[in-house]
Amino acid sequence: MNTKIIKIDPVHIDQEEIEAAGKILINGGLVAFPTETVYGLGGDARNAEASKKIYEAKGRPSDNPLIVHISSVDRMTEIVKEVPPQAYLLAEKFWPGPMTLILHKNDRIPYETTGGMDTVAIRLPSDPIARALIDASSGFIAAPSANTSGRPSPTRAEHVIEDLNGRIDEIIDGGAVGIGLESTIIDLTEEVPTILRPGYVTLEMLQEVLDEVRVDPGLIAADSKRKPKAPGMKYRHYAPKAELLLVEGDNTKVVDEINRLCELAVREGKSVGILATEETKGCYPKGEVLCIGSRKDEDSIGRHLFGILREFDRMQVDVIYSESFSDARFGQAIMNRLLKAAGHHVLEV
Ligand code: TXA
Ligand code: MG
């Protein structure tokens, strides 16, 4: 399949191109597009065949449900059984934005879209290209992250091209995304609203709106026997090709330990990638050092994480040693992705 690649400026949206992309979706085709979190691979959420194509293009297990993207809050009522009051409270505060709600679905959303589940994930993104595309389509775009299953989520169109060129109808290049990690998922079908995936909307922010919120116990302990409730969180994910080891502890000790490990690996003839920060990037004499951002600017770390993991793939390093980060607030999402990328392979110093 020949994939059409088009550039759209988010500030001056080319409405003709958007209408054409909307037609592709209405006709059952697939279009990758930017959102504020990561790039999504869109298909018509109400078209079972389109959803099947999404799974096929990504190589994604078909029991892993897709997120349905809408562009106005009231359209949520068309695809769910009922909207609990918390959904409106959260929507008011965090939509449009990086938050996904899980609600009980109705018959308008096929099981192919929800991986056989009776619930549906819904998000109203803030990205102007995403919203224009939703409006130009049926109004319901099913979109997982636009990466090959298992690879780091795409934060630029180049990443989507790397993974999906030739497998889908169109890729809209709207530049680099702002947030860089996927949306926070909150399950409102449980007695107590439950975070299934941490993201830019943090636990603390949710606690300001809801009386009670908990974090899915399946997410917390690395060695927990509990399975995460979001099917996608159980798969090895975000993973670079090289083995990744996370080194945790006091900053100077971490640098010393990474240098020691690097020395040993280099002696064994391995090429080593080091995931460093603005503050430490000058402290590693050996290895391929990539700087993720400043510790003083957590947002920059989230924004660059997936791109850096892909960069290490491109450099074909054999092993990656990474510094680790605080898991407070947005750090919870950063550490969740890093730990998954590392397969929970952590060294405490
Ligand atoms: O930021 C995002 O959410 C991006 C952009 C494109 O919107 N999308 C995204 O989709 O990250 P995806 O498919 O890569 O991740 C969706 C996650 C998976 O872990 C999936 O298992 C979970 O949401 N999920 C979807 N529907 C669910 C449901 N009904 N119940 C529980 N988990 C669900
Ligand atoms: Mg994904």
Describe this structure in words.
The chain is of the alpha/beta class and 349 residues long. Helix content is 30%, strand content 19%. It is built from ten helices and 16 strands. The strands form two sheets. It has an eleven-stranded mixed beta sheet, sandwiched between helices. The protein has a five-stranded parallel beta sheet with strand order 14-13-15-12-16, with helices on both faces. The longest helix is centred in the C-terminal third of the chain and has 18 residues. The radius of gyration is 20 Å and the shape is globular. The N and C termini lie far apart (50 Å). The model has no long low-confidence stretch (mean pLDDT 95). Bound molecules: threonylcarbamoyladenylate and magnesium ion. The site of threonylcarbamoyladenylate has 29 residues, from strand 5, strand 6 and strand 10.
What's the short story on this structure?
The protein has 349 residues and is an alpha/beta fold.
Which structural class should the secondary elements be placed in?
alpha/beta
**Helical element count?**
10
| Distinct small-molecule ligands in the complex | threonylcarbamoyladenylate, magnesium ion
Give Rg in angstroms: 20 Å
Can you give keywords for this protein?
349 residues, alpha/beta, binds magnesium ion, single chain, 5-stranded parallel β-sheet, 11-stranded mixed β-sheet, binds threonylcarbamoyladenylate, 10 helices
What are the SSEs and their pairings?
Blueprint: E1 4-7, H1 15-26, E2 31-33, E3 40-44, H2 48-58, E4 67-69, H3 85-94, E5 99-104, E6 119-123, H4 128-136, E7 141-142, H5 157-164, E8 170-173, E9 184-187, E10 194-197, H6 203-207, E11 214-215, H7 217-220, E12 243-248, H8 251-267, E13 272-276, E14 288-291, H9 298-315, E15 319-323, H10 331-341, E16 346-348
Parallel strand pairs: 1-8, 2-8, 4-6, 5-9, 10-11, 12-15, 12-16, 13-14, 13-15
Antiparallel strand pairs: 2-3, 3-7, 4-7, 5-6, 9-10
The structure holds threonylcarbamoyladenylate and magnesium ion.
Magnesium ion is lined by residues 144-145, 153, 232.
